[in-house]
Design goal:
The protein is of the alpha+beta class and 401 residues long. It folds into three domains: 191 residues, Phosphate transport system protein phou homolog 2, domain 2 (Methane Monooxygenase Hydroxylase, Chain G, domain 1, Up-down Bundle); 76 residues, Regulator of K+ conductance, C-terminal domain (Alpha-Beta Plaits), CATH 3.30.70.1450; 74 residues, Regulator of K+ conductance, C-terminal domain (Alpha-Beta Plaits). The strands form three sheets. A four-stranded antiparallel beta sheet has the order 1-4-2-3, with helices on both faces. Strands 5-11-8-9 form a four-stranded antiparallel beta sheet, with helices on both faces. A three-stranded antiparallel beta sheet has the order 7-6-10, with no helix packed on it. Pfam families: PhoU, TrkA_C. InterPro entries: AAE_transporter (IPR050144), PhoU-like_sf (IPR038078), PhoU_dom (IPR026022), RCK_C (IPR006037), RCK_C_sf (IPR036721). One of its GO terms (molecular function) is monoatomic cation transmembrane transporter activity.
């Protein structure tokens, strides 16, 4: 299929003066939202969510074209061209993530087919994300997010809002919900089950998990879930390596990309073996599409780190963009006797009341602990790479000091 087949014709893009930093912020936030939305569309078999992905993918195409135009005008001499080259890599990587998310959404829109067991496995490997429309009589209507305080009360975040044709990708504490706002909620299933009916006036009905009936299919499904988790982690660590100009983090991204490549080879073999026993082998086509798209996300993460790996240096505009994006990546050192000293981390989640995720831990004498399944006890001297909202990052830093 051609890149634009089945989509609206590309809109004409002309140069407009724009802040490269603002464009990068929006591209990063959009790319991360697209990953969440695309897997959610597959998990719920939702054409409406899949269509949101396609609309955002079109938006990303415009953003990356405007960013390229602005960067070309900014390079006035060889030194500036050298420093801006990795920024073009960051722009291209965000666009590559967007294209991969669009390919995942097409599994639903084009009814390519996906075994029910895949949705059961994704429900365990993906934090609950739902699309919820604010009803006129909801108690949340007309209130700000800080007034509702969903995150503190339930662990649920409003990660984006679509209001008519406009997106609010970074809803802040003063963002006020309006009737017919299409919100995207992410959080633990129990919290979503409490919030969704209050927001929409409709019951929340989670999908029932389905167990694979074929051993090789079960292995393939487990592989694709692990590939998804590792690819998302690679993107997070890639932006972390840029923010901190950290070659060790960039090397971890390289290691993750190699691991995802190896997983994809095994995943394809198990999928082909499963096809021999499947009642409808054609239903496995979606798995192959999902595997290819997921591997492309890890490739994109590698492109983000290019400037760090090649020791070109990180352009300040990229650092600022990462710092100002929706979910921010922070580096925190655990101080002796602090509230974090002795705190348990289970599956990457610290035992605190703060909604943040631990992406990696560096110990002075042991090196890096990296992965979505980090199980450890934090101790003084640990350097923690975490991801969360700006508010949670500040609170987490206070616990460490």
């Amino acid at each position: 299929m051609g890149r634009f087949e089945g989509r609206e014709p590309p809109q004409k893009v002309t140069y407009e003066p724009a802040s490269v930093k603002d464009l990068l912020v929006e591209m990063k936030d959009t790319a991360e939202l697209l990953i969440d939305l695309s897997y959610s569309a597959v998990l719920h078999g939702s054409p409406t969510v899949a269509q949101e992905v396609i609309e955002l993918e079109n938006r990303m195409d415009v953003l990356q074209m405007r960013a390229r135009m602005s960067l070309m005008l900014a390079a006035r001499n060889p030194d500036e061209a050298e420093r801006l080259a990795p920024v073009l890599g960051v722009v291209a990587a965000a666009d590559k993530v967007s294209d991969a998310a669009g390919d995942i959404a097409k599994i639903v829109l084009e009814e390519i087919g996906l075994p029910d067991a895949m949705r059961g496995a994704l429900s365990e490997g993906v934090e609950t994300l739902v699309r919820a429309t604010v009803s006129a009589d909801s108690e949340y209507t007309g209130r700000t997010l800080t007034g509702i305080d969903l995150e503190s009360e339930t662990g649920v975040r409003v990660i984006a809002i679509r209001r008519d044709d406009d997106w609010i990708l970074n809803p802040g504490p003063n963002t006020r919900l309006q009737t017919d706002d299409v919100t995207l909620l992410r959080g633990p299933e129990g919290g979503v089950a409490d919030v969704y009916p209050t927001l929409t006036g409709e019951p929340f009905e989670p999908d029932e998990p389905v167990e694979p009936a074929i051993d090789d299919l079960e292995r393939a499904v487990e592989s694709i879930v692990l590939m998804k988790n590792l690819s998302e982690l690679a993107v997070d660590l890639a932006y972390g390596s840029v923010l901190f100009d950290n070659e060790e983090l960039a090397e971890e991204v390289t290691n993750l990309e190699v691991e995802v490549d190896a997983l994809q080879s095994r995943f394809e073999a198990w999928t082909l073996r499963a096809a021999r026993e499947a009642d409808d082998p054609v239903a496995l086509r979606g798995l192959i599409h999902l595997g290819v798209a997921t591997e492309e996300i890890s490739d994109a993460a590698l492109e983000i780190t290019e400037g760090v790996i090649r020791d070109i240096g990180v352009h300040p505009v990229v650092e600022m963009a990462v710092q100002e994006s929706d979910e921010i990546i922070t580096r925190t050192t655990v101080r002796k006797g602090s509230a974090l000293d002795g705190t348990d981390v289970v599956a990457g989640v610290p035992a605190t009341d703060i909604a943040t995720s631990v992406l990696a831990v560096r110990r002075p004498e042991e090196g890096w602990l990296v992965g979505p399944d980090i199980d450890t006890t934090l101790r003084a001297g640990d350097v923690i790479i975490s991801k969360g909202t700006r508010t949670s990052a500040e609170e987490f830093d206070e616990l460490a000091s």
